[in-house]
Amino acid sequence: MRVAIAGAGAVGRSIAQELVQDGHQVMLIERDRAHFDPNSVEQAEWVQADACELSSLEDAGMQLCDVVIAATGDDKVNLVVSLLAKTEFAVRRVVARVNDPTNEWLFTESWGVDVAVSTPRLLAAMVEESVTIGDVVRLLTLRQGQANLVEITLDESTPFAGRAVSELTLPRDAALVTILRGGRVIVPQPDDTLEGGDELLFVTTAAVEQDIKTALGY
User: Which of 43, 61, 104, 167 has the fewest CB atoms within 10 Å of its CB?
Assistant: First the structure.
């Protein structure tokens, strides 16, 4: 893919490095000369420009990008970049960084955002996920809030140990997508059995998150 990243601070550079290593074409757009450091990610294309200016994005070739990531430390900038990417350049996938959790409600389809990533929320979710048994932990919001990626860990005494995935009676708007067991990632098949300590990842709507918990006996 060709990916444009607005913001070449620590976050933007880290994302760029990961994407470059995975074989993607990456363009970093940075206005601040202090953050403009092509040597930090040599394989990426660097553009010194204001990502909120339409003409700068045109010159940079954003219309050729498959994905745009708004990764600056300013939520206002990230919203503007997202809106321009989606409405002016018809970018297929727009991912935006949310710096202040109180602004998260703004990062929706109305502003061109397909996926909003809130670092504080993710960190809190990771803490909860590491210490919580039997509770639903929301890890990520997908598709403008229409669906969430959630995790629930089975305790060692779960009555579902040894039972097949097909025996789970899940709500209509929920799907079990992955079972994490030790160091393994299991794509669940109907005949696969559950074990105590399994971490179950579901894609679901917010309305039925608690129904998943009930279906698992919590």
Answer: 167
Largest CA distance in the chain: 60
Q: What is the total count of domains within the chain?
A: 2
pLDDT one-digit tens code per residue, 117-164: 876 666 555 555 555 566 667 777 765 557 888 888 898 888 999 999
Q: How far apart are CA 116 and CA 114, in angstroms?
A: 7
* Contact (CB, 8 A) for 20 and 41: yes
**In whole angstroms, what is the distance from residue 95 CA to residue 208 CA?**
25
* Count of beta carbons in the 10 Å neighbourhood of residue 34: 8
Q: Which ranges in 88-117 belong to alpha helices (H)?
A: none
- Please check whether residues 145 and 113 belong to one and the same domain: no
DSSP per position, 99-135: SSGGGGGG-SGGGT-SEEEEHHHHHHHHHHHHH-SSS
Regarding whether 53 and 136 lie in a shared domain, the answer is no
Beta partners for residue 152, in sequence order: 200
Residues 24 and 68 in one domain: yes
Contact by Cβ (8 Å): 202, 137: no
Global pTM exceeds 0.70:
no
- CA-to-CA distance for 94 and 68, rounded, in angstroms? 5
Range of the structural domain that residue 113 is part of: 2-119
